[in-house]
Every structure is written in C-alpha cells, then in structure tokens.
Amino acid sequence: MNKKIEKLLNDQIEKEYSSSQLYLSMASWSENQGFNGTASFLYAHSDEEREHMLKLVKFINERGGKAVIPAIYKPDVSFDSIELIFQAILDHEVKVTESINNIVDACLSEKDYTTHNFIQWYVSEQLEEEALARNIMDKLKLIGKDKGGLYLFDRDMESANIAAGNPN
Ligand code: OFO
Questions:
Q1: Is pTM, for the whole model, over 0.85?
Q2: Residue of 90, 96, 128, 136 with the most ligand 1 atoms within 8 Å of its CB, for mutation
Q3: Cystine design at 20: which of 32, 49, 109, 160 (Cβ 3.0–4.6 Å)?
Q4: 115 with 100: CB under 8 angstroms?
Q5: Which ranges of the chain have pLDDT less than 50?
C-alpha cells in the first residue's frame, strides 16, 4: 500500500482511539455526577469510536500495509459541565473532520482510489457526528443554567439512547 496513505491512516487510528478514550472519560464523569442518560450516550459513542479505529486497522492490513496500535491516550478525568463536554466534543469532531478531509485530498493526489472509496464512509460519519453535536449544543444553550431543564435533557438522552438500541 502507498506509504504516505498508510502513514495517514495509521495517524487516523490514533485519533479515533483517542476519541474513544476521551468519550469514555466523559461518560464516566457524567455517570458520577448523576447524569445517567448523558453517560449512556457517551459510553455508546466511545464504543463507536473504537469501531472506527478497528475498521481502519482491518483495512490497512487487508491492503497489505501494517496497522500500528498506538499507546493509550489518557484524557482529562474531570469536566466543568455537560455543556462544556458537548462543546469539547463538537470542537474535537471538527478537527477529526479536517483530518479525514486531509486523507481524501492525499488519496486523490496519490491516485489511491480504493482508499478514497473506503474513506467516504468516514466523510459521511463526520457529517452526522458534527450535526448531532451541534444539535445537542443548541439544546444546551437554550437550557442554560436551568437545573430542571438539564434534568429533562438527561432523561431525553437516555430515551434517545435506548431507542438507538444502546441501553448502557
Ligand atoms: Fe470517529 O468519528 Fe468521531 O471522532
């Protein structure tokens, strides 16, 4: 496999794994604060990021490259508020999207159309993840510091998570 693309995909493995670790830490913090709905959402999101990482590992190996499993990233253990958690998720996802777009560019300049085709799944996924994070942020901005609103928000997150088949 093209070495430049292999390196970019291996860097992306690290980013997806770090996302998984970050969301896991956010889930654990939320659970300890009593936000069980938000915690369930974040636990499931962490699992999804691990899946994104695995998909890359398998693709690199199937194409004759060598996937490199990175060292475990240690995220922050405490966060200031649910709103700041989701703002951090949105900022993080915007950076991940940039990184995916960078891979798309490289695939085109290296004429690696197979990886270009593979990476389109991540392009769509990023679109969905950014939209979801923006949507949640809009709700949280409306709620502001209202504790009752935050309680209902957390309950909605729980129902949405169960409806999505992730009853963590
Ligand atoms: Fe893997 O989609 Fe978020 O980071």
A1: yes
A2: 96
A3: 49
A4: no
A5: none
